[in-house]
Amino acid sequence: MMKSKIPILEHVPVFLNYCKSKGLSEKTYIAYKSFLRRFIEWLKKENKNILLPHELTVADIHSYKSYLSSLPGKNGQTLKTITQNYYLIALRALLGYFAAKDIESLPANKIYLFSCTSKRNSLIK
Predict the structure, then answer these.
(1) Which of 22, 23, 79, 87 is the most buried (most CB within 10 A)?
(2) CA angle at residue 94 from 92 to 97, to 5 degrees?
């Protein structure tokens, strides 16, 4: 594994191009682009514009999850848990890309999704 000298912000467009080259559906590509745009906003808000992949920590992920929890959704209320998870799944995909490219970073499995409870989910358990 190598330590990239390129900030995470600059890796995102390369990751999205990689997704296209690997045959990711256009719908998923657009979703990843949108969800990762929010992660970039958070990086900028936290003055982490130059954060390198190997510098991303579990504490950063917790802070990002708190940020997502406070964001307003389309209806003016906070984002639903399932929507927050979509943002985290896109981030996991980016971290998976780093692993595939032998770029040292936080392992994708360190990002835990929010627990989604509903009647349907409780029937499945």
Answers:
(1) 87
(2) 110
